[in-house]
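Hello,

I think I submitted the protoporphyrin IX containing FE job twice by accident. Can you confirm which output corresponds to this input? Input:
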Amino acid sequence: MSSGNGKTLNLTLEVWRQKGPKDPGKFVTYDAHGISTDMSFLEMLDVVNERLNEKGEEPIAFDHDCREGICGMCGLVINGRPHGPRGATTTCQLHMRSFKDGDTITIEPWRATAFPVLRDLVVDRSAFDRIIASGGFISVSTGNAQDANAIPVPKEAAELAMDAAACIGCGACVAACPNASAMLFVAAKVSHLGLLPQGQPERESRVTKMVAKMDAEGFGSCTNHRECEAACPKEIPVQFIARMNRDYLKASIFAGRREARAGDSA
Amino acid sequence: MNAAKAFFGSTIGQKVVMAVTGLILFGFVLVHMAGNLQVYAGPTKLDEYGELLRKAPALLWGARLVLLGSALAHVWAMLSLTKVNMDARPTGYRVETYKKSDYASRTMRLTGITLGAFIVFHILHLTTGTVHPQFVEGAVHNNFVFGFQAPLVSGFYIVAMLCLGLHLYHGVWSMTQTLGLAHPKYDLLRHAAATAFAAIIVAGNISFPVAVLAGIVKPAAPVIAQATAPADATSVRE
Ligand code: HEM
Ligand code: FES
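Support: Only one job matched these inputs. Its output is below.
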């Protein structure tokens, strides 16, 4: 951890501390001296927590799991930016060489009504799970799996679907949006299924249900600031939001006709 | 019926209302500006144009109704979505750092409210003449010139038009996004078109008060003797 160019930083941290969901919470200042520039941001917090433990103080709670930028568990607002100052980087992949000696770093949790703070920097992101459960899947009959190449997929659609599927559900889009809107997340999930043949049967009901759930969970609406796109560690573009708007509009306009047709064929 | 209720109750549906009504208002602003450019074609042109519009009262009132409805629906959607957005982020961040949003996108409500106030003033000023010191029904050209000879009034028009420019710079792009008119091929075009439309409308509209104040556009001949009157009128007001 201390190999590499061996430079160390002396930092001041302003960290949001909150004992539980009901606690009003406050900022607490911590000294973080002798931090190696080779450390990741989370390793830096590990060091600070070790020192707090030694002093018998409560360590700072924060979410993390893979520490490889793939699970979407980590997420801190660092100096006003979700996942910190670098683009296309999760908090766990952010390194301390992105900071300068003597810096003061303000660390805050994701802020959104739909993501209540559980403790310190940990927020409850289960609203995302409930949006997925409302329609972010494809229904398949059981039985043998089809040959993978039985259904042709245009290369363009496959690539776009992969871009959308890169979403790790970290919630940085919500954290970055001045309206705490979840449009980029929902758009990515709606699009990655809606672009593929397997996603077509439920395409209209999926977008309708997921948008309704998104609204019901208390996320804000999109005013096209594009802060979500800037914060997304997977660089998912806002074009997917336009795509979802189009799908939603189509589904809303043709909703009745679909039902009539289903009745006809019975 | 249920589907319509769900649509207009959803954030995307209300955003679509915002975009469609915004598009109608935008179309009007463009035509309105183009119509007024006739002021440069001589002192009789605007009066003739006004007469032409009044020749078809059903059409005129139909258009006014659509515009009023659009403005009200636009403001309704704005209020409803503003409430949703404020509830969604009651606690802000201590440090705010923006990366891709811009001044125009973050001031949509401010520029919009200024436009709302401007629209009311503008109607009372050049349509009904209620707040115009020398309003003569049908004398469109002279109402226009005498109206803008008051520097304070011209100043407000100019500020309002700068607000309109900001509102459209973000709004026209935002509208394409809301209506799902996105394709990677035309992405640069969307931004360029929004910028161009905003610039054309602002430049055209601001040129009117500037041209009057600079003496380039003068009152129509028969009333040229009254041309000193507005100066008195403004000094009374100040
Ligand atoms: C001449 C008058 C107006 C025109 C031409 C106009 C045009 C537009 C357009 C094209 C949009 C984009 C819709 C979208 O985002 O999808 C928009 C959005 C908006 N307008 Fe207006 N508008 C006008 C007046 C107003 C007024 C009077 C208000 C407020 C009182 C207002 C507030 C807003 C707001 C808050 C948005 C959403 C901002 C966003 O998308 O980020 N506008 N407007
Ligand atoms: S901890 Fe898994 S993405 Fe950061």
